[in-house]
Structure formats: structure tokens, C-alpha cells
Amino acid sequence: MKQIIILRHALTKVNAEGRFCGVIDTDITEEGRKQAEKMRETLKKYHFDAMYCSPLKRTKQTLEAIFPNREFIEEDGFTEISLGDWEGKNKETVDQSLRKDFQKGIYTPPHGEKHEDVEARVKETIERIFATYPDDSLILVCTSNGIMRTIKRIYGIKTEKMMSGNLEYVVLQREA
């Protein structure tokens, strides 16, 4: 069975301030780095055949903190959804019913990336990764919350909540 573990990046300043991040290229905080280093204990028991991240600094820095001496592959398909006019705004300042609709994938903020486009690129990327590796492969992907929500929707992953906390992860499986 092939598996892909999808991990959300560590805490950023933008996250800590309760603002929308989107494609703002922000660093993880010192607290986030320490949390990622602790995550090393959880993940060190796995042998990953490959590790992927988005091109955004927060995902690269998270993997570097967890696996300081490993190589990983930057993959544009895992770049966070662009939130358009919402980027950098405090989450409490936007219409909360629109925010909920956005989280469900049925609303796009002004000048933001359409959910259908994100779903298409994410699905293509996941399917390409599944096709690339042999059976019994284990892949790690570090990405952002919006991409994790997209993956949950596409692949029907049921979790307690659609929003993922920093360093939370889900597992995708594919039978051989």
C-alpha cells in the first residue's frame, strides 16, 4: 500500500496574529521551529521514500527543522491557495458567513484563486506522486491549511474539523 502523509507547516507570525496568510511568503516563528523539532520524535520512526513541500518558506523551514539533513522536493502543486484581497487581513474582519463558505470550498475571496483550479492542481499533483512511486512507498508532504482542506474534500477524508492546526497531519492511502 502506498501512503502519503500530508503535514501542515509549523506556526508562522501571520498564523499567531490570526491573519489570513495565503501565498504571503512568511517564515515560521521560533515557537514553530521548536514545535517542528519536537515533531521529529513523532516522524523519525518512519522511512520516507521522498519528501515534498510547497515553494513557500514556511513549508521548507518546517521540513528543515524536522529533518535537518534530508533533501526534499519543492512542488508548485502544493502551494497554498491565493486568498486575493483577504491576504494579510485579520480573520475576524471578514464576513464570517463568507469565511465559512470559503472553508467549504463554495466561495472565493475577491481576486483569490478559484477552488476548482486549486482542486485540479492538487489532484493532478497527488495522482502523479502516487503513480511515480512503487507499492509500499511512504511519502511526506508539507503544505498549508488550504491545501489540506482541499485534499480532505477531494479524497473524502473525514476529520473532526476541516481546519488543520499547525503540524497536524492526515494520511492518504492507495491500495497496490
A few lines on this structure:
This protein has a five-stranded mixed beta sheet. It is an alpha/beta fold.
**What is the CATH T-level topology?**
Rossmann fold
Query: How would you describe the shape?
Result: globular
Estimate what percentage of residues fall within beta strands.
Answer: 5-15%
Number of domains: 1
Question: What's the SSE pattern?
Answer: EHHEHEHHEHE
> How far is it from the N-terminal to the C-terminal residue, by CA?
5 Å
Strands across the major sheet, in which order? Answer: 3-2-4-1-5
Mean pLDDT: 94
Number of helices: 6
Radius of gyration: 16 Å
Weakly predicted, low-confidence segments? none
CATH class: Alpha Beta
Look at the structure and name the CATH superfamily: Phosphoglycerate mutase-like
Estimate the helix proportion, in percent.
Answer: 25-40%
Quickly give the CATH architecture: 3-Layer(aba) Sandwich
**Could you give a short account of the major beta sheet?**
5 strands, mixed
Q: Give a count of the beta strands, DSSP E runs of length 2 or more.
A: 5
Structural class: alpha/beta
